[in-house]
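We include the entry.

. . .
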Amino acid sequence: MLLLPLLGGVFCALAGRKLPRVLVEVLACATVWGSFGCALLSASAYGAPQTVTLSQWFASAELQIPVSLYLDPLSLSLCLMVGFVCGLIHIYSVFYMRGDEDYARYFALLNLFVFAMLTLVLAESLPLLYLGWEGVGFCSYLLIGFWYRDKDNADAGRKAFITTRIGDTALMVALAWLFQLFGTLSISQLNGMGFLMPGSIITAIGILFLIAAMGKSAQVPLMVWLPDAMAGPTPVSAMIHAATMVTAGVYLLARMLPLVGSSPTAMAAIAVTGAVTAFYGATCALAQRDLKRVLAFSTISQIGYMMLGVGAGAVTAATFHLLVHAFFKALLFLGAGCVIAAMHHEQDIFKMGGLRRTLPVTFWSFLAGAACLAGIPLTGGFFSKDSILLAVWSKGGILYQSLYFLALVTALVTAYYTFRMVYLVFGGSSQEAHETGGLKTMQAVLIPLALLALFGGLLDLPAYLGEGFLGRLFAAVPGGKATEGPGGEEVALQAIAGALALAGLVAAHFRYGRGREQRIEEADDQSPLFVFLLKGWYFEALYDMILVRPYQALSGVLWHKVDEGMIDDSLNRLAGGVGWTGTWLGRWSTGRVSIYLLSFAAGVALMIGYLAWLFI
């Protein structure tokens, strides 16, 4: 699973420019599908969790870091998802990037992205996980800024890299602290040692893990990089949002749940972060005009749901939603890529419309993904989101019940903005669209994703319909026991969530239906609430005011006043003084014997005077 994408990435990077384009494309796709094939073989032969030690990476005194891989239901399910979704994205990329000449760099980075994510997922030790963690961050930086000649794209890549470094620093501190406390960095060993430490220490470690997840998974308050990450190619956006990068934070917390879960405070912090982020992302998506930014904020919101599930201790529910979300979010982004390509790279949803007739395959596939995102009853997204809501409600207590109601409001808002997007892009009067090369193949990639998204609920059906597949698979995973409530209660909760989703659909229909686009555009643009949501609650302006501007002002003082005004000026004055002294002394080197004799006599006189002064 690991070696194939690694070898593909290295080969494309070193020799890709000298090989025919078709060969590079075939090699890049084949290595990822080969990795998926290995994951299938592992799944077919899976019997119990297994650790495989490949070699010794580092050894110094007590610190032993082996290259060990760990396969259990959690890592296996993510490997299958990453391999399949990334394989489809690679095929889609062949046609989407057909006009780009820098194909070798693109496919090399795409392959390395898959390798880094699989390394993160399969790692048995935290240093190896950290290697994959930094790998996905580095690859995302290079892919977001892939078209680096455009300043906005380069800035977006740097913004993602710098913002996620905050979380990465917290993770590094957590690793050092864990080794100092327990003398090991093995994940399986650490997960069984939580009882050895006071609750306050476990809470602090849990908060450090949460900060790490905030950065990588774009959770409040470190979420500002993800909307700008849309600057990269659309297939890259699909990979980052669906199968790699942003799911890494959720996986980290789910993997370390047996350790972190012993602290109720840390779990509550994770749940609150997830619920607030879900609401934040959904409200911001309400006002976006850029198609990809709508999907970006929806990713922030859906990852928030997963974090909420982890905070409620429901690893199965969080993983269930992670898998289904990977299918429908990849579907939505790749569908958006088809729309953007057909619309001459136009991304403003108010300048679209009528594409239901001109792009029927894209429309029906996109509609399937939108139904899952909105949580329309009987879709995969409905069942996966309901499993999280059930886990939060079953947790009990004022805090978790409040988070449940906030999650319900978010579900209503999600359905509304989702079908706002669908109506504005595909409804109304027809806009000019054209068939691009490879569009039919790109649309064909959407079909399996649409089927998996719609029927993804079969992965873990509610308890009253029988024991779900993921429920059985995760039964032995720490924290993986499926949440089961009374049958009547679960049906009631599902009915409430389904009713809210349908209410959001109806509201979007009445507001954004046929013939309403222009009026809504003018009304929204004049609304202060619209501007507030469009600007992402002004978080960027807040960070600019409290972080960027003070930093720039301090940098200006240090540059102009300290560096140039004091240090450089002092050195310049010292150099000038030395030069003047040398020039003055140089005047005595005239070549005249009379002046040298006079200087010699003056020197002797001074010496005699000095000696006389000493002896008197």
Remarks:
- The chain is about 75% helix and 5% strand.
- The longest strand covers residues 50-60.
